[in-house]
């Protein structure tokens, strides 16, 4: 009998009251309110916290109510974990013996598993408190516990459950360093005992109760981190024998364990012995049993748990050993298994190629399970990842010619993927209309189709262009069959989806089949009414392949376009199909997107046909309002391909009605506010679409100071901008934009629409269009908007415009030196200096206005920052842009304004809101770095450092020491690094003074740690060394050194 004299003795009344409280909580009466229940819960937790709670353990465990018993087991675990520091050391052995006796009693008296498992966890918790620090106090604790349980006659299943929990608790402990190593070493030393218990149970197989075998499998799985390859090999024959079990629970558990072994990064990983012990036996087993399991699933019309698990095992094998499968795909050598596996599997030797190809056929079978995924079956998607990994392995495979090769491996691989493509095309086919699927079933099937698209890309890399030819042949046959029989379009839609999915993998230079696909005859044979799913897929296809129409293969290409319609004719047929779908509300979104893609990619080819787009504009009223912006963007992109002078009138004709609509709405006193806002947003979005369409393609964008042709293009745009009509139109846009800003007020939707319009209608100098608005008046509008209400969106817009005001440095003019070239370079330099100064003046004035508006907002103290983190981030992002492009302007600010900016930064760095803190750190780091990079700012920089440097350094150190969230440490370290590297003479002095002042809040860093930190960072310019030292200092200062949490967050 264990000694219990060290436990407090409680009056029976206290135990009874505690028991009644537990029962009330676990089974509350209907009349007990939520508030009363919470009071009871707090009361029981308070009882558990008291030192006397040790005395509750035995009475509670002996109670007849299982809920009370569980609380008793939970209490001893909690006391060990939380109150160990106050537990007398001379009573440790007595507590250990008592806990083991209580556990044995619970096991032999048949208490619920949830209670015995809690006691197992308590034993592990006690071991974690004793063994890592003094192994002699509880030598071989795992073996000791096992012997105690065995002598007491504890069932095998319970013993194995205990051992599984031991491994789980050791592998997830928060111990680190040598203490964790001590615990792991005990586990390592205990593996022979655990292995004997597991292997004995598994070896008897079906002769043992099911729960014993399941417990053995679970235990072996839990101990995977500690097994060696030899340990695992002892058990594998028994596992293969259990794979033949008719008990679903045993089969699934065995399969799961083998999957863990295959995935394990420890036991086998890519250990070569795994081929003989895992890969080859499993290939033989799948050859013998896998096809039977699949056939039974197909026959029964349902994939049961065992078949689903078999598929998972099949895929896991392939995912981890795809290269091994590739190597043997045509290897005629017989596969000879080791004797233990030959005995268990009892199969005659077969060629490796036969087994590998059989494996691939089985995987194809699961990929092509009958029925629709998400409705009839949930298994086929498991194989998708394997086909990707197999394709990668095939790419890397290098087959050496040998007599053992029975076929060409490339042809065999290709035939497998050809079969896969046929299966996937069938699997992604929708059922006929009226299928009655639920919304979530439709959503799952759509997601499955997207995943199939990725798998088809993998197949394309094996089959190449023949795959596209197969799809187009299938499509032609589907269209022909539909016309003949009048059936549905489901197969054609599926084929079109497949073609659309592989677009990104195609090389237009070598593809020969797309001329057939986009032949006007084929496009026109597709239905233009009804069949919305098919038409949506066609629209998506046309948008996906928009860039093909304008693609011209290089002269060296061996591909000759077949005779037939030109690409222009094909493009016009595609555009015509898209335009005909625009009025249909169910298709308008995808049609507008497809039209935008086609027009954007092929604007030069479509420009000669601009008249047709004029007709489209005239019929704009037939198109849903929400899609008109995309349609106008499409038309605008075609107009952009015209010479700039010819763009003016079409753009005016498109844009003026939009602006006039805005004016009418803004002037209307009777329109309901909701309708007014909706119309304003729609018109702003439409105008933004027109502006976006005029943006030139990246291939066509020229720098303002590029070669002669580029200069000519920019000059022609500037000349077109001087046109009186387009100049007045820009002024009208500015005027109506100003009125919209005034109306925006608290309406986020109008503000967002204005934001998008400004982004679309402003540009860098090299990307100017006839509609581009100058930044200064828009910045003035933003200032007016901020005066009404400070929002993050207005600040973000100002940040974008500030970045655009930085003039790009002109490229040198190519060619040999000449007087004309020198004169031109001088002119360019003068122009650059003039425009750079103009841009700086604009930013100077705008910055002054912005600060005069935003700084008073933050003058309310930290609460304003706490309540508006988005505004804080926007404010510092704006200053960030100034630091990056116009850092000298910050030094030109009045002294009190610059002081307010710095104080705001320091206040923000003291916030707990991570993103505000990070934004302030980034601004200060860029400001310090940008200042140091400009020699002309040396005097101002020194004055700034003298006034603010030490305060910034203090805020950084206080943040590292614990005020700031751990996730912001990298940004604080970056700022610290900027201070140390850019303020070489001052920063070491600040650091030493601050460390001596002991002014780092609740820092737990002592003198030695501070000195170590100073030595590590002072004098070094290595960001890496500063980062490592700062991270270590932060761990020490926060009291996290030596904890797994501390090191985990530091590594992150």
TrEMBL record:
Gene Ontology process terms (BP): protein import into nucleus
Any matching Pfam family: Importin_rep_3
Name assigned to this protein: ARM repeat-containing protein
Major location (coarse): nucleus
Keyword ATP-binding: no
Sequence similarity: Belongs to the importin beta family.
SUPFAM superfamilies, per the entry: ARM repeat
Compartments it resides in: Nucleus
InterPro entries: ARM-like, ARM-type_fold, Importin_beta-like_NTR, Importin_rep_3
Assigned GO CC terms: cytoplasm; nucleus
Organism: Cylindrobasidium torrendii FP15055 ss-10
Assigned keywords, A-Z: Nucleus, Transport
